[in-house]
Design brief:
Number of strands: 20
Number of helices: 16
Strand content: 15-25%
Largest sheet: 8 strands, mixed
Shape: elongated
Distance between the termini: 35 Å
Helix content: 25-40%
Radius of gyration: 30 Å
Length: about 525
RNA sequence: GACUAAGUAGCUCAGUCGGUAGAGCACAUCCCUUUUAAGGAUGGGGUCCUGGGUUCGAAUCCCAGCUUAGUCACCA
């Protein structure tokens, strides 16, 4: 009891420490009292990794005879003067055999009897030196000759156990997993791989774009005007400038300014922010890769997307076929290409390409798609596509030629009235990218912005605002340009077969954590 | 925003009809020199999410709230 008082006083804790937390703090102090720093400063030389040893030693048992390895204690079985410990390093786990007279060759058995047996716990980080051997039970292990405390853990670790494929005490509570991702990564190390795959995905994309000679750039996140997408922004304030700033919702307009400036191709991996709903496909901050290339059109960009995504699949899976939920998706080139009208005709048997607004509305009624009077021709077409086609497009498919009303930054179609040169790639029933032949006619762009302002006046909270500086840039002349946006999180979900965006973000947005303090609201 | 489900020990979870709060692991003590879900024995550990109500008595029944998850809606 005096420990509780002591530690709650010393650490000024608002909540009482658990018995285990107190005992571990005590242990750390006792280690110190023995002249051992539980948090030593010098580097610890490591010359092997767990999985490397487990793979190579059975093939050549002369290897690893002077091994030095470090990791976190995940289990401990003390049997008198000999013990077994499992440590986990960055790649896996390996068993240690710790024998008293080996780590304490002299009369002084303190290191084993006191430090190892009494003061170390699951969760502590240690380094060991020794040689690799195989136990009588046939498990490749490290015979420890020297043990160093590297970091004392003062909070008990939830331990997941497994036998014969059965998982015991799985740490699966999604809230805890996301809030305490570090803990998730410790006790559920299989999830480390998802994030490694995400990084390989990004690196593959970056290598691909660099090989093509495009320039990776950085553009502002804090912007006086937001633009480039239809979304509600986050608003903030700069004190010195005494001005409102917005967190970017897309980087399109800045990258196009750089094309005006004379670069042939620019791209950016950008964190974008949208002040909208959250669910398993939406996090308030997310990552996009946007690419703009001069003198190209949208057909050219389809080829680039195919090539790039196919290469990503190969980099991650060594094959173009990827398991996503129930489906196996084959990213092998070439992908199917349908115009939006063709796709609708393919799935409904109805040709809407020459319909006027009234006929479209009638078609919606026939297909049981709810409409309202605010919907114009473009919106009606988009609704029909979304309801009848999108979820059925499992294998990668380009859908192109969109209604102009939905695409205020895309160039008018070279031959088809009322459409723009835009495509999306859809797979597993979800959009994975969005691209245009970019609108470079400054007069047309100004008119499109004005149309957006009208929508805003009618209460559309996601309509675009007029960006006078962007128009000024276009007025100096932008070459014909093809632009692309790929949602990195969505692509990562697909490539790692993850059910939720929270599974491909280390730290997904959560509500502020409620601390378990006394309830204060008696109102 | 709607609906459904959940909230009990550090972790994973039981808890019968409303009658003293349970298990495994973790933790402590003891035993044990090659063990395997973490060897054996013993033991400590609880704001049963919060507040109110019904009742002699509530983890359990009722009401309200909070938190979380899932699905749908909205939203690219």
């Amino acid at each position: 009891m005096h420990f509780i008082l002591k530690y709650n006083d010393v650490f000024n804790m608002s909540t009482e420490l658990s018995e285990q937390e107190i005992l571990r703090r005590e242990a750390a102090e006792q280690i110190r009292a023995l002249g051992i720093n539980p948090y030593p400063a010098p580097l610890y030389e490591v010359n092997a990794k767990s999985t490397e040893i487990l793979e190579k030693f059975p093939l050549d048992n002369t290897l690893f005879q002077e091994v030095s390895i470090a990791g976190r204690i995940m289990s401990r079985r003390v049997m008198g003067a000999a013990s077994f410990v499992v440590i986990q390093d960055s790649v896996g786990k390996i068993q240690l055999y710790v024998k008293r007279d080996e780590i304490c060759p002299t009369e002084d058995k303190t290191m084993y009897n006191v430090v190892f047996k009494k003061l170390l716990d699951i969760g502590d980080i240690i380094g060991v030196k020794g040689y690799v051997f195989v136990t009588q039970m046939g498990e490749t292990s490290i015979h420890v000759k020297e043990l160093t405390v590297l970091s004392k853990s003062i909070r008990p670790l939830p331990i997941v156990k497994e036998k014969d494929g059965v998982i015991y005490d799985a740490f699966t509570n999604p809230e805890q997993r996301y809030r305490q991702r570090y803990l998730d990564l410790i006790v559920n190390p299989q999830y480390r791989n998802v994030f490694i795959q995400r990084t390989i995905l990004v690196n593959t994309m970056r290598d691909f774009l660099n090989e093509k000679g495009y320039l990776e750039v950085e553009t502002p996140i804090l912007q006086p005007l937001y633009g480039g997408a239809a979304a509600r922004p986050f608003k903030t304030y700069h004190n010195t400038l005494d001005t409102t700033l917005y967190l970017r919702i897309a980087n399109e307009l800045f990258l196009k300014r750089l094309i005006v400036g004379g670069y042939d191709g620019v791209y950016e991996f950008s964190k974008d922010f949208r002040n909208e709903g959250m669910d398993r496909f939406h996090n308030p901050e997310f990552t996009q890769m946007e690419l703009y290339v001069a003198y190209k059109d949208y057909f050219w960009m389809m080829d680039i997307v195919e090539e790039m995504v196919e290469r990503i699949a190969l980099a991650l899976h060594k094959t173009t076929k990827v398991q996503v939920g129930e489906n196996i998706i084959d990213f092998k080139r070439p992908w199917k290409r349908y115009t939006m009208f063709e796709a609708i005709e393919h799935f409904t048997g109805i040709d809407i390409s020459n319909m006027d607004e009234a006929a479209l509305r009638e078609t919606c009624k026939k297909l049981n798609i709810p409409t309202d009077n605010s919907m114009g021709k473009g919106k009606l077409i988009d609704e029909i596509f979304g309801e009848t086609c999108e979820s059925k497009l499992i294998q990668p498919t380009f859908i192109y030629d969109y209604p102009i009303e939905m695409s205020p930054l895309a160039k008018k179609h070279r031959s088809k009235e009322g459409l723009v040169e835009r495509f999306e790639a859809v797979c597993n029933g979800k959009e994975i990218c969005n691209a245009y032949s970019e609108l470079n006619d400054p007069i047309d762009q100004r008119e499109r912005f004005i149309d957006q302002l009208e929508l805003g006046k009618r209460g559309d909270t996601e309509s675009m605002v007029l960006d006078e500086d962007f128009l000024r840039a276009l007025e100096y002349g932008m070459p014909p340009t093809s632009g692309l946006g790929i949602g990195i999180d969505r692509l990562a979900m697909m490539m790692t077969n993850s059910h939720s965006i929270q599974d491909v973000l280390f730290f997904p947005q959560m509500k502020p954590e409620k601390h378990n303090t006394q309830s204060t609201s008696n109102e």
